[in-house]
Write a structure and sequence with these properties.
There is one protein chain. By secondary structure, the protein is mostly beta strands. The strands form three sheets. Strands 2, 7, 8, 10 and 11 form a five-stranded mixed beta sheet that branches. It has a five-stranded antiparallel beta sheet with strand order 3-9-6-12-4, with no helix packed on it. It has two helices and 13 strands; from the N terminus they run ββαβββββββββββα.
Length: 165
């Protein structure tokens, strides 16, 4: 199965989380504290990830979710990256038939709602880092699931270039 790559669209992405935009004016702040409210029994964690660049076609055959807390990714020196999400089916397993994939410019962060099925962050163009914030402390903080392979590939070179920031 192939999933069409699309530009970040806040309303399409809303069931899974949000794209985090920086302020437009110097001196302004964008505040996202509502995503990091304390979770009883869990500890706040902040770490940096370093990610190698991916090339197309890219196959996703495993996803993860974090049932207890939101997960925030803030890009550091990132050109573009891929965000792949999917809803849960009635049993709570990932529904890969309804997966979505977004090509996100490195000027936007992303946050996933607790329990959102998502692929690991994949960067394009060059290796890059992300600051990751979330609450942890339960044995099932990270739940992984195998899915039928999803291929992420641009439909046409021109269409993919249009997704470039």
């Amino acid at each position: 199965m192939t999933v069409k790559l699309q530009r970040p669209n806040s309303s399409v992405f809303a069931p899974f989380g949000a794209f985090l935009e920086p302020p437009t004016e110097v001196g302004d702040r964008s505040i996202f504290s509502e995503w990091l409210k304390p979770v009883p029994g869990l500890s706040h964690q902040c770490h940096l990830n370093r990610v190698a660049p991916s090339t197309f076609p890219l196959t996703v055959d495993q996803v993860e979710c974090h049932p207890h807390a939101a997960q925030v990714f803030l890009p550091l020196g990132v050109s573009r990256y891929l965000v792949t999400v999917m809803p849960s089916d009635v049993a709570g397993s990932p529904d890969s038939a309804h997966g979505l994939a977004f090509v996100v410019p490195g000027t936007l962060g992303v946050v996933y709602h607790p329990g959102t099925w998502h692929a690991g962050i994949a960067v394009l163009d060059a290796e890059a880092s992300f600051a990751v914030l979330m609450w942890r402390g339960e044995k099932d903080d990270d739940v992984f699931a195998a899915i039928p392979p999803i291929e992420l590939q641009p439909e046409r070179t021109e269409a993919f270039r249009a997704l470039t920031p």
